[in-house]
Design a protein that fits this description.
Blueprint: H1 2-37, H2 39-46, E1 48-53, E2 61-62, E3 69-70, H3 72-83, E4 88-93, H4 99-105, E5 111-112, E6 127-128, E7 133-135, E8 137-142, E9 157-161, H5 165-176, E10 181-185, H6 188-196, E11 202-206, H7 207-217, E12 221-223, E13 233-235, E14 238-239, H8 244-259, H9 262-269
Parallel strand pairs: 1-4, 1-5, 9-10, 9-11
Antiparallel strand pairs: 2-3, 5-14, 6-14, 7-13, 8-11, 8-12
Helix pairs in contact: 1-2, 3-8
């Protein structure tokens, strides 16, 4: 009888634990579903818009002087946040390769920014806002140079950052005879240094990062023009597939910011001209 009594007590305790665990799980699931169904309301309630970025100037980065997030995309997001009734922006940093996985799995994050190109493959994973601005590769040369057109590269050695799409483009140019050779570097500042020290004749790189660093550091370099980009991209903000209300609210503000030229002013602040401006309002999600 005592053995049966002990078994009954154990079964009752196990049942209580199971019920409690089930309630906790259901509460978590319900909470996540509530956030996903109305993230816009959740953002307003917490009073902070949380973005994720890979901390790349001039797109979205932590200013070393103020320890605050800043950059083209952050400035745009601050304007959007005001429209949503939120005054604070919080930025979390992860490697770019992890951005989409983090956005779709970490419920504390609202949107992803970092000069993110809108592509068909990425649109299978997330939604994108309407386009913010355009981006492409650029050829950087000394302000006084014998290279005035792409055709002048035939006998030139160019610098390129290893592991980028621009390295692939440089490989293609070498095979086609467009350039004489190329040298790989770990960073864009290293490429700039090599150009100024005449180790290479030109650099092939991300146009916005290149032009921003030239503008910021007042370097004796320039972007080669005229030049027709071979890898143009359109930039947007990445949003979860389920956050339709938030996406619509953001697109409403983006439309206003294009009409009153706010985005153009932000681009100009970072040394970027009209060639990066996207005037048309095209649905991207």
């Amino acid at each position: 009888m005592k053995k049966n009594y002990k078994k009954i007590i154990i079964l009752v305790l196990l049942l209580i634990n199971c019920i409690g665990f089930s309630q906790i799980c259901n509460a978590r699931i319900t909470n996540n579903l509530t956030i996903n169904n109305d993230r816009l309301k959740h953002i307003k309630e917490k009073g902070v818009l949380t973005v994720i970025s890979s901390n790349d100037p001039p797109f979205a980065f932590i200013d070393a002087r103020t320890n605050e997030p800043t950059g083209i995309d952050i400035d745009i997001m601050r304007e959007i946040a005001k429209e949503l009734g939120v005054n604070n922006i919080e930025m979390k940093v992860v490697p770019f390769v992890d951005i989409f996985d983090k956005l779709t799995t970490d419920d504390s994050i609202d949107v992803a920014v970092n000069g993110i190109a809108i592509t068909e493959e990425r649109k299978k994973i997330v939604n994108f806002t309407n386009p913010l601005y355009r981006e492409s590769e650029a050829l950087i040369v000394p302000k006084v140079s014998l290279i005035n057109f792409k055709e002048d590269l035939k006998n030139s050695v160019i610098g390129v950052k290893i592991g980028t799409v621009y390295a692939d483009l440089a490989e293609k140019w070498k095979k086609e005879g467009t350039i004489k050779d190329m040298v790989f570097f770990k960073s864009i500042p290293e490429i700039f240094s090599a150009i100024m020290n005449k180790q290479v004749d030109a650099g092939l790189m991300d146009s916005i990062i290149g032009q921003y660093l030239i503008f910021k550091d007042n370097l004796y370099l320039k972007k080669l023009e005229p030049y027709t980009p071979q890898a143009p991209e359109i930039i947007g903000v990445a949003v979860r597939k389920s956050d339709i209300t938030l996406l619509n609210a953001m697109n409403k503000k983006i439309k206003e910011m294009k009409e009153d030229k706010t985005i153009k002013k932000i681009l100009k602040k970072y040394g970027l001209g009209d060639e990066y401006w996207v005037n048309n309002i095209t649905k991207s999600s």
